[in-house]
């Protein structure tokens, strides 16, 4: 007889078969009904662990049918259910972020933690301290570094966008994960982050320009209509018109990334040379900043912002 289809259980029940003995009478479920049966054998073999009781049906009309069954199909006082061991309470992780006193790649992580309401130690590392710290870290280490501590263990996490996605995966705003879980929304989120990456690195070569005036002119040129960063910024601006937020109608790490990274390229910023009207042709970028920074946790986080963070403060 075919067993009744089992309902999916989240915590599997563990049965204690030690009280069952050959010859014991019991009731066995088959296709939704219970039938009288007798224990023929109780196996301790590993490959019988799911259905270790061999029974022989005794109900009228079914005599002679034998079957291997598990505790889930049996009613018998001698069959006990093992209490699952008490789940160890996982200690909550605590976080510390190392980053320079600038916005750049660290600030999207800070802002995401703030938006998600995840407390963290904002360990701001100035250049001279970084010089001492770097040799103590694994070769090639760069900031931002997120230190995630759980109990006795601390893990150092590197790579800003990987950290951002991690933080967005554990953090939510109004019950919605900041790194979307749905495949399409996650695609939209990553799409926008990658669009930012299409133009963001193009300013890096200006660090090599020794002459200050020349460096500032080169940066200004990057965001003019014939500059190398402008087309990517325009494309992003257009894409941001598609939904209320970058990945749909809820905020995500993509919004945080767009806003914080884009505002590296408009004064006030730590990168001198960029103008104060970079986004004059790109209203969706500015509108997204205003909308994102008006969300209560970010409004609170940036309420006293000044200098290079002043653009993130909303009235
Ligand atoms: N791909 C890395 C790049 C990190 C990076 O370039 N970090 C810079 C600051 S934005 C840094 O730590 N520079 C100092 C150094 O390399 O010693 C990431 O996204 O985290």
Kindly state the number of beta strands.
13
Q: What is the radius of gyration?
A: 31 Å
The CATH architecture classification of the largest domain is: Up-down Bundle
Q: What fraction of the residues are assigned to beta strands by DSSP? A: 15-25%
Give the % helix: 25-40%
What count of structural domains?
2
**Strands of the biggest beta sheet: in what spatial order?**
5-4-3-2-6
Give a short account of the largest sheet.
Answer: 5 strands, antiparallel
What do these coordinates show?
The structure is a single chain. This protein is of the alpha+beta class and 315 residues long. It folds into two domains: 14-82, SH3 type barrels (Roll), CATH 2.30.30; 94-312, Up-down Bundle (Glutathione S-transferase Yfyf (Class Pi), Chain A, domain 2), CATH 1.20.1050. 30% of the residues lie in helices and 19% in strands. It has helices at 107-116, 127-133, 160-170, 183-199, 212-222, 230-239, 253-262, 283-293, 296-301, and strands at residues 14-16, 25-30, 33-42, 53-57, 66-69, 74-75, 80-82, 94-99, 120-124, 145-150, 153-157, 172-173, 176-177. The strands form four sheets. A five-stranded antiparallel sheet has the order 5-4-3-2-6, with no helix packed on it. It has a four-stranded mixed sheet with strand order 9-8-10-11. Helix 1 links the parallel strand 8 and strand 9 (120-124). Helix 1 (107-116) runs parallel beside helix 3 (160-170). The longest helix is centred in the middle third of the chain and has 17 residues, at 183-199. It is elongated. 29% of the residues are buried. The chain binds glutathione (GSH).
């Amino acid at each position: 007889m075919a067993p009744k289809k089992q309902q999916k259980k989240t915590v599997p029940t563990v049965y204690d078969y030690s009280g069952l003995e050959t010859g014991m009478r019991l009731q066995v479920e088959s296709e939704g009904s219970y039938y009288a049966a007798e224990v023929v054998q109780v196996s301790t073999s590993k490959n019988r662990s799911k259905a270790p009781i061999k029974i022989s049906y005794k109900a009228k009309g079914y005599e002679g049918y034998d079957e291997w069954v598990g505790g889930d199909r049996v009613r018998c006082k001698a069959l006990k259910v093992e209490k699952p061991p008490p789940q160890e309470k996982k200690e909550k992780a605590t976080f510390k972020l190392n980053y320079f006193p600038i916005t750049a790649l660290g600030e999207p992580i800070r802002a995401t933690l703030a938006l998600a309401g995840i407390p963290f130690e904002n360990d701001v590392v100035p250049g001279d301290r970084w010089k001492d710290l770097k040799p103590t870290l694994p070769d090639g280490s760069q900031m931002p570094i997120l230190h995630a501590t759980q109990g006795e263990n601390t893990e150092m996490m590197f790579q800003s966008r990987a950290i951002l996605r991690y933080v967005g995966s554990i953090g939510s705003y109004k019950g919605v994960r900041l790194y979307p879980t749905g495949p399409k929304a996650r695609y939209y989120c990553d799409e926008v982050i990658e669009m930012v990456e299409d133009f963001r690195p193009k300013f890096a070569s200006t660090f090599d320009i020794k002459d200050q005036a020349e460096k500032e002119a080169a940066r200004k040129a990057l965001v003019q209509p014939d500059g190398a960063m402008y087309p990517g910024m325009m494309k992003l601006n257009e894409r941001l018109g598609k939904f209320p937020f970058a990945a749909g109608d809820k905020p995500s790490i993509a919004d945080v990334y767009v806003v914080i990274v884009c505002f590296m390229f408009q004064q006030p910023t730590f990168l001198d040379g960029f103008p104060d009207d970079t986004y004059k042709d790109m209203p969706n970028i500015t509108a997204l900043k205003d909308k994102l920074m008006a969300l209560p946790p970010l409004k609170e986080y940036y309420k006293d912002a000044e200098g290079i963070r002043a653009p993130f403060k909303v009235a």
